[in-house]
Recover the amino acids of this structure.
């Protein structure tokens, strides 16, 4: 029996995927798994029972990844599950920035008591005239699940699309329209594109990447879209460039005191993935990943441990070991079983940076003594008996 705890409301369509092997608990201290959306976990005391955290969404800035890795807690996210919802809002943001629809709507609200509003609107509408997006050059920084979808839709809208991603995956490449121009230097996007949208994770290497130096390289009147993370952009620099006329509009899905209510900024209250469909997709994906890990030890879409899949165990036992990615660890693991006359029928070892994950299928169940010996090996974070 596994126990799970929800730190945030999780869509019922996802929770329904749990079988009779699972029970929901309100006591986080006894949970094997935690499902979370936006709740902050950095200051949270992680229970000893906890082995998995599933984030129903893509961003994991609210989760202490390194701390979890050292405790042998696998953290999952759900990349791509909310991609369509974000894609649609990116397109909406592009249209709102290109044509002053919001300004026109506000004018109508302000003139609601005007009996001649229809006639006066014909005079006023020139103040809200914009430009079409057909034929414009769109630069997409980051060709992940969202970036690829935005690129493909933009092509259908008649835009000339440039894409930059030095680490584009094979799946993304297959799904990307052949008409998208894949550039090898992000500066080409800065220099060539009328509209630029950013879709990269927030890392030390990407924090503040849209800075004054990048802005200096951009075209006059450029439109910037940020539906990834606000800290990717030096927003104070963007405001200065809006005042100078270099930046035409800045669209952000992340309200903060810097941009809220500022002229030239269209700030949306973090609605990118706030659709029923996205929340359902994220919940289902998070639950499926957690189940496969708890029941089989398989890891898919983890952000702090490598992917690893050995299917369903057909042997008497399966043991998972979380450890440092250092030499001679496998030899020590296999010796523990060999010394106890237990044959290893299958094994896999995967690494990710400084951490590694080893799974072994064995022909006899592992005793508490063997598990203790494995746990005592220097460099081992955690040993988990899967079966």
């Amino acid at each position: 029996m596994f126990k799970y705890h929800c730190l945030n409301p999780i869509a019922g369509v996802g929770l329904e995927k749990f079988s009779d092997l699972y029970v929901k608990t309100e006591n986080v201290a006894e949970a094997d798994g935690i499902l979370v959306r936006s709740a902050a976990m950095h200051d949270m005391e992680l229970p000893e029972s906890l082995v998995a955290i599933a984030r129903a969404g893509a961003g994991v800035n609210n989760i202490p990844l390194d701390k979890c890795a050292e405790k042998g807690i696998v953290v999952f996210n759900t990349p791509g599950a909310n991609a369509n919802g974000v894609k649609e809002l990116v397109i909406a943001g592009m249209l709102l920035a290109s044509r002053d629809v919001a300004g026109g709507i506000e004018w109508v609200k302000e003139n609601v008591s005007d009996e001649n509003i229809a006639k006066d609107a014909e005079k006023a509408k020139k103040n809200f005239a914009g430009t079409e997006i057909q034929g414009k050059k769109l630069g997409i920084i980051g060709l992940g699940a969202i970036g690829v979808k935005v690129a493909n839709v933009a092509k259908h809208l008649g835009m000339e699309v440039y894409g930059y991603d030095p680490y584009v995956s094979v799946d993304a490449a297959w799904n990307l329209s052949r008409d998208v121009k894949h550039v090898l230097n992000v500066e080409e996007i800065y220099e060539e594109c009328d509209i630029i949208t950013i879709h990269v994770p927030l890392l030390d290497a990407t924090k503040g990447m849209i800075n004054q130096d990048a802005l200096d390289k951009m075209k006059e009147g450029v439109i910037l879209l940020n539906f990834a993370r606000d800290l990717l952009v030096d927003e104070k620099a963007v405001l200065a460039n809006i005042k100078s006329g270099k930046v035409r509009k800045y669209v952000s899905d992340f309200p903060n005191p810097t941009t809220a209510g500022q002229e030239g900024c269209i700030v949306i209250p973090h609605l990118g993935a706030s659709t029923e469909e996205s929340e359902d997709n994220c919940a289902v994906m998070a639950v499926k990943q957690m189940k496969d890990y708890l029941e089989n030890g398989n890891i898919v879409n983890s952000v702090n441990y490598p992917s690893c899949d050995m299917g369903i165990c057909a042997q008497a036992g399966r043991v998972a070991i979380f450890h440092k990615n250092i030499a001679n660890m496998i030899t020590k693991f296999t010796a523990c079983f060999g010394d106890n006359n237990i044959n290893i029928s299958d094994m896999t070892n995967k690494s990710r940076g400084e951490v590694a994950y080893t799974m072994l299928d064995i022909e006899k169940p592992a005793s508490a003594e063997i598990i203790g010996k494995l746990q005592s090996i220097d460099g081992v974070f955690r040993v988990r008996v899967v079966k």
The longest helix spans residues 276-296. DSSP finds 13 helices and 16 strands in the chain. The chain has a mean pLDDT of 96. Residues 117 and 181 are 46 Å apart (CA to CA).
